[in-house]
Every structure is written in structure tokens, then in C-alpha cells.
Design a protein that fits this description.
CATH architecture of one domain: 3-Layer(aba) Sandwich
Strand content: 5-15%
Protein name: PPPDE domain-containing protein
CATH superfamily of one domain: Vaccinia Virus protein VP39
Shape: globular
Mean pLDDT: 70
Structural class: alpha/beta
Strand order of the largest sheet: 3-2-1-4-5-7-6
InterPro entries: PPPDE_dom, PPPDE_sf, PPR_rpt, SAM-dependent_MTases_sf, TPR-like_helical_dom_sf
CATH class of one domain: Alpha Beta
CATH topology of one domain: Rossmann fold
Organism: Effrenium voratum
Radius of gyration: 35 Å
Helix content: 55-70%
Keywords: Hydrolase, Protease, Repeat
Number of helices: 48
Pfam family, one: PPR
């Protein structure tokens, strides 16, 4: 066997030859290129060479397979036979070159030996060719040579990332009476870690009486990748890891500390390591700080972390929306840090600053790609294309960023054109570019166009086509694509399920639900909501109950399963207060109270329901409201946030309900049912509530039933539900309580559902920065038929924490399509960035405060400000003349200058006692029995008519704003 390789060097044979054993040892210590010359020198000096020398010489080439093959080719000329040990050494030298390893195994004559096959299996494992490793095991069995534990262990190692195959091999070992050893179990645990199967990894760990450090680390990795932080830290202590000796174990545990408060634990572990910490330790702690947006802590670590640490610190600033600090850190740094700083600007919509950063560095594909992403985040797709085509030789990364920029702006034609022009620029298309173009088609609902772009069998790119089908009417294609997927894909299953649900194909949806419910999780919320909405719409009680029962198996706080089982038994059409809720009251009361805050899904919400059931009698809605407010106080004291309207927010909500005047009321974002409860107890008409999350909808159903109120509670996305809620007359009042950046999309879907003169009340428009929505209803972009008051309000717990609610009278007309100003687009991007962060890893209260302060400044700069001088329940001085909508003098009577009843609230315009500045004041109905609106009409004190209400509100706003402070 001959093979060309490196040119042999001169040998290093000592003058006095050692004995046979010593010379073999010397050969093993040589550099690969010295082996051949040394063998010939030993033969020339008549030293007897044997199989030990051959194996030693080949073994010295363990990191250079070409040289090992060259040594093999020289052995026949030295009258040395290639025995099993020599063949195994040659195969081992192949490392990841598995094809060469198999060729040596086949040609060496030792193919059936466990040792040689084990060496070939190791090469397959190094290359992660699990299918070849399994085939080799089958071949060994066919050769009547039962694989030994080493062969099995190597095959299991090759199955990393294929955890089902790894477990299958462990079962095969047991069936073949081959006892797995520590290496076998550790290799299987590594595969389970790759597949995020931490529960089964822990079961394997328990099979080892005395795990070594590799086994502990494999189990720690499985817990870390499964996001089981608490269990990972507990296992670190249980493994008796010591800072000086087990740095790797500490690094793995720090990697599990990403998100929310995990950065504190990561820094404490880093402190335990002290001087033993390596670069990976610092990187893991930096990653935890970056994921939590703790830019100050990341910066402190980065000072000693070199360029990588500085880049992580800039990334932490980006996640915390601290783009100014990111720019300061990037000054004088390399292009990778500059790209990170550009990304920080892009996250908050500051694309102009991103452009300045790129100009300071000069041309760079890395910087251009980041800059195109920043323009895309700000929906400046034309500017992105200008920058892109100015590049002389754009690469695939620049193409993908430019296509994504067009996709975010819903410019699907431009995105598709860029994809199709890649071959003209001698750039090969890839899945990233294809995905971006398909995403643009998805946003436009063009599933046929998306299908035309798909090439070959569906992969990750096929998911976008499935999502297009879900948005459109292509449910048959969605099922066909799902069947063609080469491997099981939860995301593809979810998309196909949503396509069938939106097409009302309930039989197909029920069939898909069986597979989806095999592994229900909160992360699949939209698919589960689509199923729930379809089952409720079609009256499919059995599938609806089965859905809730399967969700009851989720890992969650104590009591969640009982709540879901109870909700499954509730009939939405039955009278309130069935016996099952009374039974739940007893079962939850027996459970320990538990913390109201924590990391388990739905822990806060189950604690709220438990508090209500313990504190109130069934059917007492007023007591339930009080119990929710008291729970909010406890939660706020513990550092949590009660996501239901209370305090002055509740007052605005109640006046909106009173303003419905017997019409239907809609609550978008029901959460646990708090706002729906307040509305149902006061509104004369039907109350309809929408909630996306299936579990939260179940909790709300139980709470509302226990309170004894009738609410039509629907589960699903507004895109799916609102078109079905269009009814004669429309909704007289609507309460919006989702994230501010989503309000504009909801408003567009909601507009056809509103009755003339409807009241639209939106919560948290300041703290979640509803920039585009406020421009459409309260800014210069508002339609003539929209009259809006922005009211400063406070939370039930934190009276000092300012927020705004918007109250809009929709008299008529469609939404305007005026372009949103750039500052508001930047604010919208910052809001959406914080929403994604709060949803995925959690956000700190300070981040909401920062966004609220930034939003207040930006909104004031474009003339969107709250009414100045609003004073709930207070009177105004009677020394200001008022005017009607037609500029005729209004005769004054008592405290009222303009007596207008809007939304069940009596409004007055005058000067407030607080600072004598013009303002609008609202009095609750009948607060002053001598001056109700209708009585002022009878007395002739005002000439205002109900038709003038919208115009008067507009005049009030203009007169009452004053100059911004």
C-alpha cells in the first residue's frame, strides 16, 4: 500500500542502539515525518524489527493519516507484516476521514475484529456519521463477530444529535447481553443533551453508581440546554465540583444562567472560580449578562476580556436598548465590534446613527450586512437598497440582509427580485436568502408565489410556505408539504394545523391535533389557540376538553392541572357557577399558598385564582374585584406586576363600559378575566372577551364563572377571531390590553367591527409605547372621524408610576394611510424589541421605565400629549366662559362650562384648582345630582346636543393641552 505524503526527515538513531522494546518506545515519540527514515536506519544497523516497531511507527502518525499510510506502504520492504495492532493504529490516524478509515478496515484483513472495527467506528463518530456507524455495526453482526462494548460506545458517540438512535443502541446492547459501561452511558447522555432530552439524560446518570467527571458534565450539559437552571446548579453541587479542578463543570452551569435573574448566579459562580476562571468562564458569564441586558455588569467583565469580551458587552448594551453606550464602546474597536454597535442602533430604529458608525469604519461586508439590518428594522427598505447596490461585490450575507429589509417593509416584489438577481452577481443563493424572500411572500399572504420559489424537498425554507398557507387558503398544500417533510418538525406541524383551522377544516385539524398534543407546550401558543378557536366555533366539545386535559400535563405550579381539568368541564353556554368550580375552590384551598412570583409557567396566574377562591364567596363579583386588587398589592410588594386594570385605569374602563349604552362590549386581551369581570358587572349589553393563550383563557373562564358573570370568552388570535365577530350594529365599546406595538395591527382588523360613535379604550399606550397606534388615533395621522383623549393614569400598586390610556370616539371614516414619522417608527421598533425580550427571556422593571420616558419625549415631540389637568372627581372653577362646537356662547351654570356626557362621564372644561391651567375634568355619573348633563339641557344652561359631542371633545383637547413642559 503506497501513498504520497510529507518528505521524510533525517533520522535520529543514537550511536548505541537500544534494545527492541526501547527502540519501539523511541519510535512512538518521534514526529510523523521522522518515522520512515528511522525504521530504515534501525534495519540498516541490523536491529531485529517486529510487529511492535510497526505499530509504534504508525502510532506516531496518529495525527497525520497521509504519513501513516506512507509508513504502511514501507512496511513490506522492511519485511514487517501489518497485524491487527498496526491496522488499528492506521485507522485511528484517520480521525474524521471516515471514508479512508473504512477503506483501511476493508483492505487490512482485520475487518471482523472488534478492535479494528472500533477504530473505524471512532472515525465515524468523529465525523458524526451516525448512519455509517450503524451500518458498520450491522456488518459486524453479519460477519458473526458480535460488537463489543467499545464498538457500541463508539457508535453511540457517532449518534450525537440523534438521541433516539443512541437510546436504541443502548437497548440493543442489553438485548445482546453486552453490559454498557460508563463511556456508553456518557456518550448517550451527550446525544440526549444535543436533543434537549434532559429528563432521559438524568435517568441514564442514575444508572451509574460512581459517575466520572465526563458523565457529570454530560448531564449538566443536558440540563443547561434544556433550560433547567435550578436543576443544573443543584447537580453542580451534587457532583462535588471544585473550582480548581472542574472549571468545565462551572462553565456549563454558567451557560445555564441566561435570562432574567440568571446573571446574578453566573457572576457568583465566576467569583467562586476566582483565578481558576479561563476565557470560556468569562465568556459564559458575559453571555448571561448579555442575555439579561445587564450592560453595566457585562462592561465590567469586558474590561479584561479582549475583543470578544468587548463585543459581548456591546451585545449586552444592544439587548438593553442602550445604543448610545454601545457606540461609545465601539469607538476605536475592530469591525466586528462596529457591526455589534450598528445592531444596537438597529434594535431601536436609529438607522441614521448606524449609518454614521459604518462610515467611520470604511467599506466592509460585515458592516454593510449589519447596516442593512438596521435599515430593515426601521422599514427604510429604499435606503437599504441604495446602500446594497453601492457595494461593488455584495456577498450572500449582504443579499440576505437586503432581502430581509424588504420583507420587513412588506415589499415582496423587491425581495423576490433580489433573490432572482443573485446569479447575475455571481453569488450562489442559500437557504438564508430564500427564507428571507419567502418571509416577504408570507407577510403578503402570497402562498402561490412562495411555492414558486421553493426548490427541492421542503426544509426549513418550506416552513415559510406553510405559514403562507396558514395565512391564506392553501390548507391542502400545507398538508402535502407536512407529509413531505423528511423529519418531524413541530414548527411545520403547527403551521399546517393553523392553516386547517383558519380554513375551518375541523376534521383535518382534529387529526393534526393528535400529533400536536403529544408534546404541548406554552411555546406553541398560537397553534393551540387556533385549535381552541376552531373547536369553540364549531361546537366540538370533546376535542376542546381533550385539548385542555392534555395541557394539564404541562410542567407548572401546583393546582394548574386541577384548573385546566375544571375548565374542560365548563360549558360556555351553561349558567354561571357550576358545581365543578365549587369543587375546585376546595381543592385549591387545600394546596399550600406558594409564591406569587417565580419561573414556572402560569405561577402568578394560578396564585391569583387560588387567592380569589380562598377569599371570596361564589357569585360575589364585587368581592372578586377587591380580591384581585389586594392580590395586585401583594404582587407589587414582591416585585411582580399585576397585568390587570385597577386604580384609575379601572375608572376609565368603567366609564367606557357605561358609554356603551346597552351595546355589545369587546375586551381584547382578557388575560385572567379581570377587565372582562369589571365590564360584565356594569355594561348592559353582551361582553365578549378574546385571549390568545389557551391556559390563560381557561383560568379566566374559571374565574368569571366563579364570580357569577356572563362573558362570551373566545380563545384565539385577533386575526382569526375578529372577522367572525362582525355583527349588525357592531361593538359599542372596546377595551384593548395587548402590547402597544400590536395595537395598530389590531385596530386595522377591528375597524369594521365598530359601531358608529363607538368608544375605543387602549391601556398601557405609554409604558409599552403604542407609537403607530397613537399616530393613527391621536396624532396628525388620525382620520377626521377619530376624537381621542389621552389620560394620565396610575397602576393600582405603584401610584407614582405614570402611564397613559387613550379614549377614542370613532364617529366614522376609515383609517388614514399617512406615513408614520421616523421618530415614531423608531419608537415602534424599540417597543417591539422590548416585547420580544419580555416574552422570551423577561425584562427588568427599569427597562419599562426607560421605554416610558423615551416614549413620552418622542410622543410630545410630534404633538401627542395627554390632557393636562385631569383630576378625577374634582370640581373646576366657574370663571371661564365656554363655547359650543358652533362657536356660540354657552351660558354657565354652577361648575359646568361645557356640560357634555360622554361614555357615562360628565365632562367639563375650565381651570383646575391645582395650577389654574386650562384642563378637562371628568365627574363620575350623578356625582353632583344638581348638574347632570340632561338637567343642564332642561335648565337651558347649555345648548350642546348629543351630535356635538365629538366636536366638543376635539375642542377640549386643543384648548386643554397647553405647552409641553
Amino acid at each position: 500500500m503506497a501513498c504520497t505524503g510529507a518528505k521524510p526527515r533525517a533520522c535520529r538513531v543514537p550511536e548505541e542502539l537500544p534494545d527492541s522494546r526501547a527502540s519501539a518506545k523511541m519510535l512512538r515519540s518521534l514526529a510523523p515525518e521522522e518515522c520512515i527514515a528511522t525504521l530504515h536506519a534501525l534495519r540498516a544497523q541490523r536491529l531485529e524489527l517486529n510487529a511492535f516497531h510497526a505499530a509504534a511507527a504508525v502510532g506516531a502518525c496518529r495525527r497525520s493519516w497521509p504519513t501513516a499510510l506512507q509508513v504502511l506502504g514501507e512496511l513490506p520492504g522492511l519485511r514487517l507484516a501489518v497485524d491487527e495492532a498496526t491496522c488499528c493504529s492506521a485507522i485511528s490516524s484517520c480521525r474524521q476521514e471516515w471514508q479512508m478509515a473504512l477503506a483501511l478496515l476493508a483492505s487490512g484483513g482485520h475487518g471482523a475484529s472488534p478492535r479494528a472495527s472500533g477504530a473505524a467506528l471512532s472515525a465515524c463518530a468523529a465525523a458524526r456519521r451516525w448512519e455509517v456507524a450503524l451500518g458498520l455495526l450491522d456488518w459486524l453482526s453479519a460477519e458473526h463477530s458480535q460488537p463489543d462494548v467499545i464498538s457500541y460506545s463508539s457508535a453511540i458517540t457517532a449518534c450525537e444529535g440523534q438521541w433516539e438512535q443512541a437510546l436504541g443502541l443502548l437497548r440493543a446492547m442489553a438485548a445482546a447481553a453486552c453490559e454498557p459501561n460508563e463511556v456508553s452511558y456518557t456518550a448517550a447522555m451527550a446525544g440526549l443533551a444535543e436533543g434537549q432530552q434532559w429528563e432521559q439524560a438524568m435517568q441514564l446518570l442514575r444508572c451509574l453508581p460512581q459517575p466520572d467527571r465526563r458523565a457529570w458534565n454530560a448531564a449538566l450539559t443536558a440540563l443547561a440546554r434544556g433550560r433547567q437552571r435550578s436543576a443544573c446548579l443543584a447537580l453542580l453541587r451534587r457532583s462535588n465540583a471544585r473550582p480548581g479542578s472542574h472549571v468545565v463543570s462551572y462553565n456549563i452551569a454558567m451557560g445555564a444562567c441566561a435570562g432574567e435573574d440568571g446573571w446574578v448566579l453566573a457572576l457568583s459562580l465566576l467569583a467562586e472560580l476566582g483565578d481558576d476562571a479561563d476565557q470560556l468562564s468569562v465568556a459564559a458569564a458575559l453571555g448571561a449578562c448579555e442575555a439579561a441586558g445587564r450592560w453595566r455588569q457585562a462592561l465590567a467583565l469586558a474590561l479584561g476580556g479582549g475583543t470578544g469580551g468587548l463585543r459581548s458587552a456591546i451585545g449586552a448594551c444592544a439587548r438593553a436598548a442602550q445604543w448610545q453606550r454601545a457606540l461609545l464602546l465601539a469607538q476605536g474597536a475592530d469591525a466586528s465590534c462596529g457591526a455589534a454597535a450598528i445592531g444596537a442602533c438597529g434594535n431601536t430604529g436609529h438607522w441614521e446613527q448606524a449609518l454614521l458608525v459604518a462610515e467611520s469604519y470604511g467599506p466592509s461586508p460585515v458592516l454593510l450586512s449589519a447596516l442593512l439590518g438596521a435599515c430593515g428594522a426601521a422599514r427604510r427598505w429604499q435606503r437599504a437598497l441604495q446602500l446594497f447596490w453601492a457595494e461593488e461585490l455584495p456577498n450572500s450575507f449582504c443579499f440576505s440582509a437586503a432581502i430581509a429589509a424588504c420583507a420587513k417593509a412588506s415589499e415582496w416584489q423587491a425581495a423576490v427580485e433580489l433573490l432572482q438577481r443573485m446569479p447575475e452577481c455571481s453569488v450562489e443563493s442559500n437557504n438564508i436568502c430564500l427564507n428571507a424572500a419567502l418571509s416577504a411572500c408570507q407577510r403578503a399572504g402570497l402562498w402561490q408565489r412562495a411555492l414558486s420559489l421553493l426548490r427541492g424537498p421542503p426544509d426549513s425554507a418550506g416552513l415559510h410556505v406553510l405559514l403562507c398557507c396558514a395565512e391564506g387558503s392553501g390548507w391542502p398544500l400545507a398538508l402535502a408539504l407536512l407529509a413531505a417533510y423528511p423529519t418531524e418538525s413541530p414548527a411545520a406541524l403547527d403551521a399546517a394545523c393553523m392553516a386547517c383551522c383558519r380554513a375551518l377544516r375541523w376534521r383535518e385539524a382534529v387529526w393534526l391535533a393528535r400529533a400536536l398534543l403529544q408534546s404541548p407546550s406554552p411555546g406553541r401558543v398560537e397553534a393551540l389557540a387556533a385549535l381552541a378557536a376552531l373547536f369553540e366555533e364549531e361546537g366540538l366539545e370533546q376535542p376542546r376538553r381533550r385539548l385542555l386535559q392534555r395541557l394539564g400535563r404541562l410542567q407548572g405550579p401546583e393546582g394548574l392541572q386541577e384548573v385546566l381539568m375544571t375548565a374542560a368541564d365548563l360549558d360556555p353556554q351553561a349558567p354561571p357557577l357550576p358545581s365543578s368550580v365549587v369543587g375546585l375552590q376546595g381543592s385549591l384551598a387545600r394546596l399550600p399558598a406558594g409564591p406569587a412570583t417565580g419561573r414556572l409557567p402560569y405561577q402568578k396566574e394560578v396564585a391569583l385564582l387560588r387567592h380569589v377562591l380562598r377569599s371570596c364567596s361564589a357569585g360575589d363579583g364585587a368581592a372578586v374585584e377587591e380580591a384581585m386588587d389586594s392580590f395586585a398589592g401583594r404582587l407589587g410588594a414582591a416585585g411582580g406586576w399585576a397585568k390587570f386594570a385597577g386604580g384609575t385605569k379601572a375608572e376609565v374602563l368603567l366609564r367606557a363600559a357605561a358609554g356603551a349604552q346597552g351595546g355589545a362590549v369587546l375586551d381584547v386581551g382578557a388575560y385572567c378575566g379581570g377587565s372582562a369581570l369589571r365590564l360584565a358587572r356594569r355594561a348592559a349589553g353582551e361582553v365578549v372577551a378574546l385571549e390568545l393563550d389557551v391556559v390563560l383563557s381557561a383560568i379566566a373562564r374559571v374565574l368569571l364563572t366563579f364570580a357569577g358573570v356572563r362573558v362570551r370568552l373566545l380563545t384565539g388570535h385577533t386575526r382569526q377571531l375578529l372577522p367572525r365577530l362582525r355583527q349588525p350594529g357592531g361593538f359599542a365599546a372596546v377595551f384593548l390590553d395587548v402590547w402597544g406595538s400590536q395595537y395598530a395591527e389590531v385596530l386595522a382588523s377591528l375597524r369594521p367591527c365598530l359601531a358608529p360613535g363607538a368608544l375605543l379604550c387602549a391601556d398601557n399606550v405609554l409604558r409599552t409605547a403604542a407609537a403607530e397606534f397613537l399616530w393613527r388615533v391621536a396624532g396628525a395621522g388620525a382620520a377626521p372621524g377619530f376624537r381621542t383623549l389621552l389620560l394620565p393614569v396610575t397602576e393600582v400598586v405603584k401610584q407614582s408610576e405614570e402611564d397613559w390610556m387613550s379614549v377614542t370616539v370613532v364617529a366614522g371614516g376609515d383609517l388614514n394611510v399617512f406615513e408614520v414619522p421616523a421618530p415614531l417608527l423608531q419608537l415602534q421598533a424599540a417597543s417591539e424589541f422590548l416585547r420580544a425580550r419580555a416574552t422570551n427571556v423577561g425584562a427588568e422593571p427599569e427597562e419599562f421605565d426607560d421605554l416610558a420616558q423615551h416614549a413620552k419625549h418622542v410622543l410630545r415631540s410630534v404633538g401627542i400629549v395627554p390632557v393636562d389637568g385631569v383630576s378625577w372627581g374634582k370640581r373646576v372653577a366657574a370663571d371661564v366662559e365656554g363655547h359650543s362646537a358652533h362657536d356660540t356662547e354657552v351660558r354657565l351654570g354652577g361648575a359646568f362650562h361645557v356640560g357634555v356626557e360622554v361614555g357615562g362621564m360628565e365632562w367639563s372644561y375650565g381651570r383646575t384648582f391645582r395650577d389654574s391651567r386650562p384642563g378637562v375634568v371628568g365627574l363620575p355619573p350623578r356625582k353632583d345630582p344638581n348638574h347632570s348633563y340632561r338637567e343642564t339641557l332642561q335648565l337651558g344652561v347649555t345648548d350642546m346636543s348629543l351630535e356635538d359631542v365629538n366636536e366638543v371633545i376635539s375642542n377640549m383637547i386643543e384648548a386643554g393641552l397647553g405647552e409641553p413642559p
